[in-house]
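Inputs:
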Amino acid sequence: MGQYRWESDLAKAPVIETKDLTIRFGGNVAVNTVNLQFEEYSLKSIIGPNGAGKTTLFNLISGQYKPTSGQVIFDGQDITGLDPATRTKLGIGRSFQLTNIFSTLSVLENVRLALQSKADVGMVFWRHWRSYFKLEDQAYELLKQVLLEDRWADEANTLTHGEKRKLEIAILLGLDPKVLLLDEPTAGMSIEEVPAILKIIQNIKAARKRTILLVEHKFDMIMNVSDSIAVLKDGRLICDDVPEAVSCNPEVMEAYLGGGMKYG
Amino acid sequence: MTTEMTPVQRERFQAQQAFFKRPSFLIQVALVIGLILVPLVPSFRVMDMMAKIMIFSIVVASYDLILGYTGLLSFAHAMFFGIGAYSMALLCYHLGSPQWHHLILATIVALAMSVVLALILAFFSLRTKAIFFAMLSLALADFFHILGRSWRNLTLGEDGVTFSLPGILNVQGQGFSLFGLNISPRTMTYYLVLVVSVALFIFLVRFVGSPVGRVLQAIRDNEQRSTALGFKTFPHQIYSIVFGSSISSMGGILFALWLRYVDPESVLGVFSMVDYLLMVIIGGLGTMYGSIIGAAFFITVQTWLPDLLRGIAANFPDYEIIQRMADRWMAYFGVMFVVVILVFPKGIVGTVQKIIRRRRMASFK
Ligand SMILES: Nc1ncnc2c1ncn2[C@@H]1O[C@H](COP(=O)(O)OP(=O)(O)OP(=O)(O)O)[C@@H](O)[C@H]1O
Ligand SMILES: [Mg+2]
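Outputs:
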């Protein structure tokens, strides 16, 4: 393992750890014996060519997929057997690469639901949802952060693709998990929309209260924000180091150029 | 507060302030007053129709909770209705002369059976695929239908059970006089149906308006997303099925009270599910209030359309084709149903609500 910028954090146990994590789809090993540690309050990017297994790795960490073998450890606890809802409650929240929102509900309601989950009132049936009015106001504030407040009253399926991506981020911010899994948060956004999202990510990182796992193709962005970068290729971890070391690693550059990775 | 209100706050502020002035609230008050005055109409047929509309409104509303809000297709809703109806009928019939505590006992038995059966249904089917829920509910419903027909010692089979009610609900009794008006036992039963239906309806509306109701809609919209938000699908679905089914059985209790007669075909028949589906779709899935419109439409047409057609036919005794056409009231109902759905694709209430909501929200941009 290379050296991290946050030397003082090295002593701490990682907040998330994968141990020989492997998943097989038929003959295709999408994630192959991956051992990764995610230091608390750091930002680790995961890069790799298309089909390298980045999204699949996220699905394994957040519980959408169960591994063929290996383990996922969260806060020292083996969570491999837990379902996605339980993992979210523990503090692992994610955004999806393929936009995944509540399309028949209003934009505000999409975010409000995340806040409701965080507030833990999802099983209350004797009070009116509007009596938790703080949740609505907080949801509106989050929409402001992602520059989506003008659309708050609209049904989510009327949003443009870029707006849906922003809503996806707002939902994750509403959930405010200990660990944020961001799967290509800016993909599909127009150039003008990217800086606001980048700023949000940088702010969360700067506060050092949350751990961020970021999948992105925009290389300069990754070089800028990451504490460390893990590189996947064909399901295998080929490198995990600080940005400078990764960018001059010949194997990575070979995967990068040879593997047809997109440039942001 | 000196800071300017956000559009969200303005919208909420207006919604809360105007609650008692809102047309929907006034319509509901007018509706309840209208229902209270129904017994003044000197026609038993009208009162009978209104009582049935009330009963089926809550049955269909509870079905809307399961189908419209939760997205689960249950074929056992009529079975729960039948369980309520039979609990009432059998307890009053078998326990000797009717007593008030039989009514309470019947309610407890019906609710207990509904909760247990709903839990069994959910635990055995929901963990797997949604289609198993539909299939198991159908099998269970069919089983109870057969049970109702063939366990003759208990249910009297196809003949059905005729029973009488205690005290002022007993139609053999005299009733009493209030402010110079004679309140018959029938009228008393009508008011009992009114009070219970309104209470259950309010409960259902509150339930879907609670945080749980919101989560149910989220799960129906996108189950994967809602689990990724930390909402567990299974406990929420259990909530919905248990409450929905129990309320259906309460509807069955009211139905039995009103008719003082139950038989397997009318309260346990799986084909009643088609009626429920028609009613909930006419009104609008996932709207709650739609069930009132759906039930009113369906039962009114069912009550008057055959008469209307017969009346028309009587005027044309020489035209055989008209005579034949007049016999097929269900066919005309089918045509009306199709027309309603073409005009109101989300059901009557669903479509109107959508238009109103869109207008209202546009003013808060
Ligand atoms: N549910 C599945 N069933 C079968 N194969 C799958 C499944 N999910 C992923 N895969 C396969 O796993 C491999 C890795 O896919 P994954 O989506 O993780 O790649 P990725 O690194 O996220 O790529 P991209 O940059 O395009 O998002 C691919 O070959 C894909 O076809
Ligand atoms: Mg991917």
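Remarks. The longest strand of chain B covers residues 176-178. The pocket of adenosine-5'-triphosphate (ligand 1) is lined by residues A 25, 28, 30, 48, 50-56, 97 (CB under 6 Å).
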